[in-house]
Amino acid sequence: MSDRLKQIGGHVSGNFPKGMLAGEVAIITGAAQGIGKEAALQFAREGAKVVVSDLDEKKAQAVVDEIKAAGGEAFAIQGNVMDEGFPKKLVDGTVKKYGKINHIVNNAGFTNDKMLHTCDDETFRTILECHNVAPFRIVRQAAPYMRIKEESKRENRSIINVSSTTGLHGNVGQANYAVAKAGVVGFTKTIAKEWGSFGVRANTVAYGYILTRLTAAKESGEKIIINGKEVPLGIPQGPQTSSGVKSVPDIPLGRPGTADEAARAMLFLASPLAAYISGHTLEVTGGRGI
């Protein structure tokens, strides 16, 4: 039995205390909150050394502190993924600290919804910059540490890009987001084809309705600053149940997903359990859209 299969088997049997990602290094962007934070915590629990990347330095450090308090290893790299020089800062900082890169999770993102006929060029272009150009630059920068020719020196390595059901099916008021998230799928499949011969897997997670600040009530006033401008987050409040959660009759499981549940899909795709999965788009929707 190969060492990798022993690792998987040991974990599944409950006899692998170091975790499925023991000793591996994972970069996760947008990791200070929401799905990214949960992914950082889960990767760390499975033994990964986690690079917590985010715009918000204070929140990113709080995630690092939480990981370290639980006995894990992590450090933060603050910055805007859309800045041209950020990929070099991110990759160089990771390699200087940990000496290698095993996983890149391109999770950072936001929405800026406008109806097609009222969407200006800047609003359209900025969403593409964040969801397409930034991941491309990060992956390209990491190429020397991912494209390892010697098979004997290869470890478990993967790239996970985040899409959305909006990218698969479109959505009212999200022409910019739909184009960007559709592009993520094609980008991922190209990585899988170009880098598969180096043992690198590339997969996409397409999320449905997950409870994060991007799907919270827009009326709550949550905002981020992008290029010096305030961008409101969330969606207009709709009908609610008595519990305060939006009614979702089109989801077979009957509820939105949590950030913790969403992050598990990332962990699965990075783990040895997905050793022969590449170029795939995993829909995490609770059954919505089937």
Polypeptide structure, described:
This protein has 290 residues and is α/β, with parallel strands linked by helices. The chain is 39% helix and 17% strand. The chain is built from 8 helices and 9 strands. The strands form 2 sheets. Strands 3-2-1-4-5-6-9 form a 7-stranded parallel beta sheet, with helices on both faces. Helix 2 (34-45) links the parallel strand 1 and strand 2 (49-54). Helix 2 (34-45) crosses helix 8 (259-270) and helix 4 packs parallel to helix 5. The longest helix is centred in the middle third of the chain and has 26 residues, at 121-146. The chain is globular and about 55 Å long. The termini are far apart. The model is unreliable at 9-17 (pLDDT under 50).
Write the layout of secondary structure elements.
Blueprint: H1 3-12, E1 25-29, H2 34-45, E2 49-54, H3 57-69, E3 73-78, H4 86-98, E4 103-106, H5 121-146, E5 157-164, H6 165-169, H7 175-195, E6 200-207, E7 223-226, E8 229-232, H8 259-270, E9 281-284
Parallel strand pairs: 1-2, 1-4, 2-3, 4-5, 5-6, 6-9
Antiparallel strand pairs: 7-8
Helix pairs in contact: 2-3, 2-8, 4-5, 5-7
